[in-house]
Every structure is written in C-alpha cells, then in structure tokens.
Write a structure and sequence with these properties.
Elements: E1 16-19, H1 28-46, H2 48-53, H3 56-69, H4 77-91, H5 98-110, H6 119-129, E2 131-136, E3 153-156, H7 157-160, H8 168-177, E4 184-188, H9 191-199, E5 204-208, E6 224-226, H10 229-238, H11 242-245
Parallel strand pairs: 1-2, 1-4, 2-3, 4-5, 5-6
Helix pairs in contact: 1-5, 3-4, 4-5
Bound molecules: magnesium ion (MG).
Magnesium ion binds at residues 20, 22-24, 188-190.
C-alpha cells in the first residue's frame, strides 16, 4: 500500500514521538533465536537433565502455560522466563539460583540486536527536534543495544504495569514528556499493539511495515504506512508542522 502522504498531513510537529523497538528498529526474531540457542547451550552444560526433556519449543510451551496460569505477570516477559526456568530447574532437582545466571546469559544475547540501517541516522535527526521515548513490550535493554543513546527515555511494559495494546505505556510516556495526545505521535510495526492502541487514546500513529504485510481487514486503515523511518521523516517534513520542526 503506498504511503497516503497527500491525504494525511502530518500532525503539527509533534513534541513527543514514541517509538516501538522490536521489528520497528531491529528485527526481533534473530536476536531472540540467538539468545534462546545460547541459553539452551548453557543449560545443556549446567542442567543436562532439563535440556534432555525440554527443547526450545517445549520451553516456550512451559512459559505459555505459566502466562495462562499467572496473567498478572504475563506482560513481564523476563519474569515469565525466570519463573519458568526456576520451576523447571526445581522439577529436575537443580539449584533454582541457576535460573538467574541463565537469564543473565539470555539477556546478553537478547541485547545484541542489529538495527535496520535507517534507524540510527533517522533517530539522531528526530532527537534534535522531538522528545523521543522508546515504548516496548519486549525485554531488550535499550542502553545495552547499539541504539543506547538514541532516545531521551526508554519505557517498558514492566514499568507501565501492562503490555501494549493496554494504553498505560503511552500515558506514562506523555506524563513524562508533559504533553497530551494531540502533541504526540506513535510509530510502530504492530497494527494492534502499536497503531490501534495509540489511536485509541487519540494519538496519531504511523505504521512501519518493513516486510510488506497486509493491514488487518477488521481495523480502520492507518493514518500513514511507511516502509522505513526515512518515509516517516519525509512525511514529517512535508506536514503542516514542518516549518516549526526545521
Ligand atoms: Mg514491534
């Protein structure tokens, strides 16, 4: 779908831009897969009886069962991983403290993301004119990634107490920046968790569609669709707020 820039002018130089991380600024799956592979290799050394019975898919199924049983922690993917590992280690007669070391191992690899080529230069440009806040459901630690200095603030679902599409993280970002929805723009790859969730609060939202996905038929179309962040900048520059922003 071509970007409908002419039909959808940019909001007047948004003071706050909130931006999703996974699959918006870097591909998520390779980092998770590498982190899980490293975790399993480490556990194969430290807890072989567990890994003989649980491969990556079985570990995932165990986490999903835990999330279903404990919905109050489902938004905290790190806590879910930790508690799942503790339970499995105990079940296989290992020291549960191994779970903390295992998570440190996972975390190091999870943070080794490879941002898309447009991310760093565009964020550096946007940061000069807007308050930039990362808003993520994931457990990458932004400060430990190559984009560690790209934002003014990073917020997670853990800090917000709920994962997107819950609006809590957007409210937290606006509170911190001291602005309302009309001065905010959200940018993300997920039609429901990013675009639809943000506009539910009256926040203009841009859909980053790097992999040519189809927009869900049951949702109203996005204000703007871009293939990468350069498309976002072009739209902002062309909008009614462009003169102020420049
Ligand atoms: Mg995402």
């Amino acid at each position: 779908m071509p970007a409908p820039a002419a039909a959808a002018p940019a909001p007047g130089a948004p003071r706050l831009i909130t931006i999703d991380l996974d699959d918006t600024l870097w591909p998520c799956a390779p980092a998770i897969q590498a982190a899980e592979a490293a975790l399993i290799a480490w556990l194969a050394e430290q807890a072989p009886r567990l890994i003989e019975r649980f491969d990556a898919a079985a570990l995932r199924a165990h986490r999903q069962a835990l999330m279903a049983a404990r919905p109050e922690i489902a938004h905290d993917v790190t806590a879910v991983r930790l508690l799942s590992l503790r339970a499995l280690l105990a079940e296989h007669r290992y020291d549960v403290a191994l779970a903390d070391a295992a998570m440190d191992h996972f975390r190091r690899h999870r943070n080794q993301v490879e941002p898309y080529a447009d991310a760093a230069p565009v964020l550096a440009r946007l940061r000069e004119r807007h308050c930039l806040i990362a808003v993520t459901n994931g457990n990458a630690e932004l400060a430990e990634t190559p984009l560690g200095n790209a934002f003014h603030r990073a917020l997670t679902a853990v800090e917000a107490g709920a994962a997107k599409p819950d609006p809590a993280i957007f409210r937290l970002a606006m509170d911190w920046a001291g602005v309302g929805p009309d001065a905010t723009l959200h940018v993300g790859d997920d039609p429901v968790r990013d675009v639809h969730a943000a506009r539910g609060l009256g926040i203009a939202a841009v859909w980053v569609n790097r992999t040519d996905q189809a927009w869900p038929e049951d949702l109203p179309p996005p204000l703007l669709e871009v293939r990468d962040l350069h498309g976002l900048v072009r739209w902002l520059d062309a909008g009614p707020g462009a003169a102020d922003a420049l």
